[in-house]
Amino acid sequence: MSKKINVVVWNEFRHEKTSEKVKAIYPDGLHAVIKSFLDTNEDMEVTLAALDDPDQGLPDELLEKTDVLLWWGHMAHGDVDDELVKKIQSRVYLGKMGFIALHSGHHSKPFKAIVGTNGNLSWGRNQKEIMWNMMPQHPIAAGIPDHFLIEEEELYCEPFYIPQPDALVFGAWYEDGYIFRSGACFLRGAGKVFYFQPGHESCRSFYNPYVQKIITNAVRWAVPGDLGYEIPDKCPHILTKATDEFND
Length: 248
Prior knowledge:
Elements: E1 5-11, H1 15-18, H2 20-25, H3 30-38, E2 44-50, H4 60-63, E3 68-72, H5 82-93, E4 98-102, H6 109-115, E5 122-133, E6 147-157, E7 167-174, E8 179-188, E9 191-196, H7 209-222, H8 244-247
Parallel strand pairs: 1-2, 1-3, 3-4, 4-9
Antiparallel strand pairs: 5-6, 5-7, 7-8, 8-9
Helix pairs in contact: 5-6
């Protein structure tokens, strides 16, 4: 078997400790549920990380071997260390790691720093959501029907203040009539980024088989490619002489 994809599922892991409702749905943390379905794939090696772990869950030795980082945060975005954010941003830009922001990760420091956005959107009550497959030819949409139902999810709706996506794979319609760009891909530097909307802490969206399939597909899509050369992390020295061809 070829090298496994090193996946880290990072979760703020605060709601599950403070809310009985959330704990009843995700007793070991929502990141543990994500790990449980990713673990069924033989090509993935999955590690859990949380905000209150040492080094906020991402010591250098773990971060440096991570191929794809999944990120869920909500109530403690401001507690994430800015130096850690810079390290994450650099690894994505240099094509060393893919990044997947889940649900309220739209307001996370890493997503905003990598994509270049304030991450603002409109939101409302939990309700039924229909997820529409807008790019069935995209690798992240493989095996997903033209639409599927999420029985209960927090309303996220437009306007969503993100840059123009490089690919808009999924769009959502809610029972109150609102719409949302719910699955968006971004190319930043030499790295790949995917934002996926389902995953409110008081909903069971991470148990939905189609949501699980999309996240699994997204991990494989976001794996850094072999460029055949190193991306410099500093600007090269200024050139003072052109090639002989132009100096004759």
